Amino acid sequence: MKIVHVICGTTAVGKSDYAIEYAKKINGEIICLDAFQIYHSMPILSAVPKKKDKDLIKHHLYEFLDPREKFSVAQYYNDCMQKIFELLDKGIAPILVGGTMLYLNVIENGLENEGKSENLEFRLKMQEYAKEHSNIALHALLEDKDSAAFEKLHPNDIKRVIRALERTESTCEASIVRDDLKENEVSLNKVCLVGNREKLYLKIEDRIDKMIDGGILKEVENLLNLGVNESHTAFQAIGFKETSAYLKNAIDKEEWIRLFKRNTRRLAKRQLTWLRRQKNTEIIEIIL
To answer: Rounded mean pLDDT of 38-66?
Structure first.
């Protein structure tokens, strides 16, 4: 049986280190499952795997994209599937490593179309609702209307959450247009790494201190000089907005660090909530 392995987990839990040892045992190579590690010029912000790890095990789909470029979930799906089957054909185990649930969802459940009819007024209304109440509040609307979509979709997958809500208001239905793994009888072996929340938060704070010492200010300054701004996906990486505000003197150093750490902790909390709901997943408690 052909198997694709997945190692997911919260930020800072130790996915990369675990994946290296895992790959050694099963003759595997690592494929990026992170929405920011695909971009070059931001290795500190995105916490890409270290060079020594890349020298030990081959890594794919890392740092290949200009941070000013858009990269859709469909584009990721296409590139990832191409790499998966390339490795399988060579007898190498593909190991997807990262914490981007949007990417994991499409790999696991297939690529959807969006249906034919559109209710633009409804979509705009839902976009405003998310801005006013949060992505999580918008996602919560799905629980009673479409429990399957509620379980499947990540709160930050705004486009698909709104589309799912729209389908509950109409006869429009989405359909799977591609499911390469299912069609080729490839199964997923999912491992989720979790750790003690308090210790994870301490590790996050230590990581951010090291990112600051390691030159994140210069990295963000260079990205801003390249023209990366709020309209680019790369700008959404935790720490980019906060560091940009500090560089522009909108906040002081103390507030910059406070927001950077707080928002990273919040990300970890959302990831943990999402990951614990995953089905057919082995949960491994990591000692931090």
So the answer is: 97
Residues 186 and 63 in one domain: yes
Q: Are residues 26 and 63 in the same domain?
A: yes
Q: Which amino acid is at 243?
A: T
CB 10 within 8 A of CB 272: yes
Q: Are residues 181 and 144 in the same domain?
A: no
- CB neighbourhood size of 171 (10 A): 7
The length of the chain in residues reads 288
The residue segments making up the domain with residue 230 are 197-269
Query: Under a CB-based contact definition with an 8 Å cutoff, are residues 260 and 277 in contact?
Result: no
Query: Do residues 96 and 5 touch, judged by C-beta distance below 8 A?
Result: yes
User: What's the whole-number mean pLDDT along residues 208-221?
Assistant: 98
Q: How far apart are CA 153 and CA 231, in angstroms?
A: 23
CATH number at residue 211: 1.10.287.890
Residues 121 and 152 placed together within one structural domain of the fold: yes
| pLDDT average, residue stretch 150-162 | 84
Count of domains forming the chain:
3
pLDDT for the residue numbered 147: 75
| DSSP calls for 170-228 | SS----EEE-HHHHTTEEEEEEEEEE-HHHHHHHHHHHHHHHHHTTHHHHHHHHHHHT-
- 98-107, 113-122, 231-240: the lowest-pLDDT one: 113-122
pLDDT at position 124 is: 81
